[in-house]
Amino acid sequence: MNFPKMKSDEELKEILKNIISKIPLECQECGSKASFIANTNQMLKCSWQHCQRSFSLYKNTVFWCSKMDKLKILRILDCWLNEMPIEYISFITGISAGRISRFLKRVEEKYRSEYFKDRSSGNGMDMIYEVEEPMFESMEYGQIYR
Protein backbone atom coordinates (compact mmCIF):
# COMPACT_ATOMS: atom_id res chain seq x y z
CA MET A 1 0.00 0.00 0.00
CA ASN A 2 1.23 3.47 -0.84
CA PHE A 3 0.45 6.13 1.72
CA PRO A 4 1.28 9.83 1.56
CA LYS A 5 4.34 11.00 3.45
CA MET A 6 3.61 11.48 7.14
CA LYS A 7 4.16 14.84 8.77
CA SER A 8 7.24 15.25 10.96
CA ASP A 9 7.03 16.05 14.68
CA GLU A 10 8.07 19.65 13.96
CA GLU A 11 5.22 20.06 11.47
CA LEU A 12 2.75 18.61 13.98
CA LYS A 13 4.03 20.99 16.69
CA GLU A 14 3.51 23.91 14.30
CA ILE A 15 -0.03 22.72 13.55
CA LEU A 16 -0.75 22.42 17.29
CA LYS A 17 0.52 25.98 17.90
CA ASN A 18 -1.68 27.20 15.06
CA ILE A 19 -4.74 25.43 16.51
CA ILE A 20 -4.10 26.84 20.00
CA SER A 21 -3.61 30.37 18.66
CA LYS A 22 -7.07 30.25 17.02
CA ILE A 23 -8.90 29.26 20.22
CA PRO A 24 -10.60 32.39 21.60
CA LEU A 25 -9.44 33.46 25.06
CA GLU A 26 -12.87 34.32 26.42
CA CYS A 27 -15.14 32.88 29.06
CA GLN A 28 -17.49 30.23 27.75
CA GLU A 29 -20.19 31.29 30.23
CA CYS A 30 -20.29 35.08 30.07
CA GLY A 31 -18.06 35.96 27.09
CA SER A 32 -15.63 38.13 29.07
CA LYS A 33 -11.89 38.02 28.59
CA ALA A 34 -10.11 35.07 30.18
CA SER A 35 -6.50 34.69 31.21
CA PHE A 36 -4.25 31.73 31.92
CA ILE A 37 -4.08 30.52 35.50
CA ALA A 38 -0.57 30.81 36.93
CA ASN A 39 1.73 27.81 36.39
CA THR A 40 -0.60 26.16 33.86
CA ASN A 41 -0.61 26.26 30.10
CA GLN A 42 -4.10 24.94 29.52
CA MET A 43 -6.41 26.30 32.22
CA LEU A 44 -8.16 29.65 31.81
CA LYS A 45 -10.00 31.80 34.32
CA CYS A 46 -12.64 34.43 33.59
CA SER A 47 -11.51 37.97 34.42
CA TRP A 48 -15.00 39.29 35.25
CA GLN A 49 -15.35 39.69 39.01
CA HIS A 50 -18.80 38.10 39.27
CA CYS A 51 -18.02 35.07 37.11
CA GLN A 52 -14.47 33.86 37.90
CA ARG A 53 -15.09 30.46 36.25
CA SER A 54 -12.15 28.21 35.43
CA PHE A 55 -12.14 26.03 32.34
CA SER A 56 -9.76 24.18 30.07
CA LEU A 57 -8.36 25.78 26.94
CA TYR A 58 -9.11 22.54 25.09
CA LYS A 59 -12.80 22.33 26.00
CA ASN A 60 -14.97 21.60 22.92
CA THR A 61 -11.95 20.55 20.88
CA VAL A 62 -10.69 17.15 19.80
CA PHE A 63 -8.17 17.26 22.68
CA TRP A 64 -10.85 17.52 25.41
CA CYS A 65 -11.04 14.64 27.93
CA SER A 66 -8.22 12.67 26.34
CA LYS A 67 -5.24 11.42 28.29
CA MET A 68 -3.24 10.97 25.10
CA ASP A 69 -0.47 13.38 24.23
CA LYS A 70 -1.64 16.21 21.95
CA LEU A 71 0.97 15.36 19.30
CA LYS A 72 -0.13 11.71 19.30
CA ILE A 73 -3.71 12.83 18.74
CA LEU A 74 -2.59 14.90 15.76
CA ARG A 75 -0.54 11.95 14.47
CA ILE A 76 -3.58 9.66 14.73
CA LEU A 77 -5.79 12.16 12.90
CA ASP A 78 -3.15 12.75 10.23
CA CYS A 79 -2.79 9.02 9.56
CA TRP A 80 -6.55 8.44 9.67
CA LEU A 81 -7.27 11.27 7.23
CA ASN A 82 -4.68 9.75 4.90
CA GLU A 83 -6.76 6.53 5.04
CA MET A 84 -4.28 4.37 6.92
CA PRO A 85 -5.69 1.25 8.57
CA ILE A 86 -6.02 1.38 12.34
CA GLU A 87 -3.46 -1.44 12.71
CA TYR A 88 -0.80 0.72 10.99
CA ILE A 89 -1.73 3.74 13.10
CA SER A 90 -1.41 1.55 16.19
CA PHE A 91 2.04 0.38 15.12
CA ILE A 92 3.24 3.93 14.38
CA THR A 93 1.95 5.52 17.59
CA GLY A 94 2.39 2.61 20.00
CA ILE A 95 -1.23 2.88 21.15
CA SER A 96 -3.56 -0.11 21.05
CA ALA A 97 -5.90 -0.44 18.08
CA GLY A 98 -8.95 -0.60 20.36
CA ARG A 99 -8.08 2.69 22.03
CA ILE A 100 -7.51 4.37 18.66
CA SER A 101 -10.81 2.99 17.39
CA ARG A 102 -12.71 4.29 20.44
CA PHE A 103 -11.05 7.70 20.09
CA LEU A 104 -11.91 7.97 16.37
CA LYS A 105 -15.49 6.87 17.05
CA ARG A 106 -15.86 9.60 19.69
CA VAL A 107 -14.41 12.19 17.31
CA GLU A 108 -16.77 11.08 14.56
CA GLU A 109 -19.84 11.21 16.82
CA LYS A 110 -19.00 14.71 18.03
CA TYR A 111 -18.16 16.31 14.73
CA ARG A 112 -20.72 14.51 12.58
CA SER A 113 -23.57 16.00 14.61
CA GLU A 114 -21.97 19.47 14.45
CA TYR A 115 -21.46 19.12 10.69
CA PHE A 116 -25.08 18.26 10.03
CA LYS A 117 -26.34 20.85 12.52
CA ASP A 118 -24.63 23.57 10.44
CA ARG A 119 -26.03 22.15 7.20
CA SER A 120 -29.71 21.95 8.09
CA SER A 121 -31.80 25.08 7.96
CA GLY A 122 -35.12 23.38 8.59
CA ASN A 123 -36.81 23.90 5.23
CA GLY A 124 -34.72 21.41 3.24
CA MET A 125 -34.00 23.84 0.42
CA ASP A 126 -30.22 23.61 0.87
CA MET A 127 -30.17 19.85 1.38
CA ILE A 128 -28.84 17.37 -1.17
CA TYR A 129 -31.06 14.36 -1.74
CA GLU A 130 -29.99 11.05 -3.20
CA VAL A 131 -32.55 9.62 -5.60
CA GLU A 132 -32.28 6.15 -7.07
CA GLU A 133 -32.14 5.97 -10.86
CA PRO A 134 -34.82 3.26 -11.29
CA MET A 135 -37.41 5.80 -10.16
CA PHE A 136 -36.88 7.79 -13.36
CA GLU A 137 -36.83 4.80 -15.69
CA SER A 138 -40.23 3.44 -14.70
CA MET A 139 -43.21 3.58 -17.04
CA GLU A 140 -45.93 5.92 -16.07
CA TYR A 141 -49.00 6.50 -18.26
CA GLY A 142 -47.37 4.59 -21.13
CA GLN A 143 -44.25 6.83 -21.32
CA ILE A 144 -40.68 6.21 -20.28
CA TYR A 145 -39.07 9.05 -18.40
CA ARG A 146 -35.28 9.33 -18.47
Keywords:
42% helix, globular, 146 residues, single chain, two-stranded antiparallel sheet
Main-sheet strand order equals 1-2-3
Number of helices: 5
Compressed to H and E, one letter per element, the order equals: HEEEHHHHEE
Strand content: 5-15%
> How far apart are the first and last residues' alpha carbons, in Å?
41 Å
What is the overall silhouette? Answer: globular
Number of strands: 5
Share of helical residues: 40-55%
- Mean pLDDT comes to 77
Class by helix and strand content? mainly alpha
Low-confidence stretches: none
Task: Report on the biggest sheet.
Answer: 3 strands, antiparallel
Spatial extent as radius of gyration: 23 Å
Which helices and strands appear, and what pairs or packs with what?
Blueprint: H1 9-22, E1 34-36, E2 43-46, E3 54-56, H2 70-81, H3 86-93, H4 97-119, H5 134-137, E4 139-140, E5 143-144
Antiparallel strand pairs: 1-2, 2-3, 4-5
Overview of this protein structure:
- The protein is mostly helical.
- The chain has a domain at 62-119.
- Helix content is 42%, strand content 10%.
- It has 5 helices and 5 strands, in the order αβββααααββ.
- The protein has helices at 9-22, 70-81, 86-93, 97-119, 134-137, and strands at residues 34-36, 43-46, 54-56, 139-140, 143-144.
- The strands form 2 sheets. The protein has a 3-stranded antiparallel sheet, with no helix packed on it. The protein has a two-stranded antiparallel ribbon with strand order 4-5.
- Helix 1 (9-22) packs across helix 2 (70-81).
- The radius of gyration is 23 Å and the shape is globular.
